[in-house]
Amino acid sequence: MTTATPEQPADVVARLRATFRTGRTKPVEWRTTQLRRLRDLLKEKGDDLAAALHTDLGKSSTESYRTEIDFTVREIDHTLDHLADWLRPEPAPVPAHLGADATARTQYDPLGVVLVIAPWNYPAQLLLAPLVGALASGDAVVVKPSELAPATSAALARLLPAYLDTDAVAVVEGGIPETTALLAEKFDHIFYTGNGAVGRIVLRAAAEHLTPVTLELGGKSPAFVDSTADLQVVADRLARGKFLNAGQTCVAPDYVLTDPATAAALEPLLASAVEKTYGADPQRSGEYGRIVNERHFDRLTGLLGSGRVVVGGVSDRADKYIAPTVLADVDPASPVMGEEIFGPILPIVTVDGLDEALAFINDRDKPLALYVFSESAETRDRIAAETSSGGLGYGLPLAHLTVSDLPFGGVGESGMGNYHGRYSIETFSHRKAILDKPLG
Ligand code: NAD
């Protein structure tokens, strides 16, 4: 169940598998009861989670409710509203050679015992939203919170067993040794959110057992801006999307790609958007988060030397604070453009137009998200047609992942598979093909 018990990963998995074999998790009633209990947890103990998130990441309560707690409640409500519909067997046409009395359909079967490994940046949402999908699919679930968000991990380990069926849902806390031990076990699906290096470890471990995986990874998500856009609106939305959770958001705009004239016009607007959102001194704003730990703080401050500082550029290690920072005249070969930033630094890189922007994007790994700020239908259409990314957002960063009826996931280096809403049922179930030919 939790690390409070000496139960080993192998025993946890065996215990959950025994429960799954009894068929207890399969009825829709069990699934909806678990979802309602999870909803009760979020309603009754949301403040406990918000406090933990504040401890781990300096998130304000408003931000925690918006991006983690209420986000998950919405995912639960959407699932409860539609689950019966999603699970309904789908008839399929039968070819003539099987006779007129034959029928065919698909049916969703739970997979069995699944593992959800969560990261630290949205440590509640990114553990609980996959859990919603797994419970809705009738699976038994082991969840592994991130050790880098220890307060949230402890809160989840305390709260989940108090609300959910502990014979079918287990929390295993810990870091690399515990995760490695879990990965040695046979699961029926592994759902991992985090970086690509560990994604490869997960995929290798899964291969041993022929276990299917979903990898929700990251990467550098570009924001393309052209001169047709209302740059005031662009600056406001970019600043909000980028600096939420101090930039530690997998779908945050990583960098701005624009032409030199638009860049020059955008710079002061981004500076004023930061001030409008977080005040003259963001360190004193209750709404601005902190960097998760010193290692990431040091990595990020090492990236501040690229380009020219438009706004921000200051930091305070004792407070794990890095100011919302915009860098202009950034060389594509500079360190800040060499890796996913995953922090509050927004470089502006200039290109001489759409063709060069498309080449720039397509020369790099397929991003998790791509944002386009343009009033030109032709530009928007060309970017949709000529690039590949996990998601595409016109005019508003981050928001596509709040649409429960859209699949959320990456492609190529940004991941494989997807979830949210009915796509979670696809991920955590097996769609079984059934042919029925009467014997008579
Ligand atoms: P992290 O360090 O918390 O790691 C994620 C999980 O992997 C943790 O549970 C951790 O215990 C486990 N882990 C770490 N090292 C391991 C190892 N050697 N073997 C087995 N398990 C191990 O999180 P992170 O990777 O730093 O997260 C940041 C990355 O995640 C960024 O690249 C970001 O873009 C990506 N991300 C993607 C999404 C998405 O939905 N696609 C969401 C959030 C974050």
TrEMBL record:
<comment type="similarity">
    <text>Belongs to the aldehyde dehydrogenase family.</text>
</comment>
<feature type="active site">
    <location>
        <position position="216"/>
    </location>
</feature>
<dbReference type="InterPro" id="IPR016160">
    <property type="entry name" value="Ald_DH_CS_CYS"/>
</dbReference>
<dbReference type="InterPro" id="IPR016162">
    <property type="entry name" value="Ald_DH_N"/>
</dbReference>
<keyword id="KW-0520">NAD</keyword>
<dbReference type="GO" id="GO:0004029">
    <property type="term" value="F:aldehyde dehydrogenase (NAD+) activity"/>
</dbReference>
<dbReference type="InterPro" id="IPR029510">
    <property type="entry name" value="Ald_DH_CS_GLU"/>
</dbReference>
<dbReference type="GO" id="GO:0005737">
    <property type="term" value="C:cytoplasm"/>
</dbReference>
<dbReference type="InterPro" id="IPR016161">
    <property type="entry name" value="Ald_DH/histidinol_DH"/>
</dbReference>
<dbReference type="InterPro" id="IPR015590">
    <property type="entry name" value="Aldehyde_DH_dom"/>
</dbReference>
<keyword id="KW-0560">Oxidoreductase</keyword>
<dbReference type="InterPro" id="IPR016163">
    <property type="entry name" value="Ald_DH_C"/>
</dbReference>
<protein>
    <recommendedName>
        <fullName>Aldehyde dehydrogenase</fullName>
    </recommendedName>
</protein>
<feature type="active site">
    <location>
        <position position="250"/>
    </location>
</feature>
<dbReference type="GO" id="GO:0006081">
    <property type="term" value="P:aldehyde metabolic process"/>
</dbReference>
<dbReference type="InterPro" id="IPR012394">
    <property type="entry name" value="Aldehyde_DH_NAD(P)"/>
</dbReference>
<feature type="domain" description="Aldehyde dehydrogenase">
    <location>
        <begin position="3"/>
        <end position="434"/>
    </location>
</feature>
<dbReference type="Pfam" id="PF00171">
    <property type="entry name" value="Aldedh"/>
</dbReference>
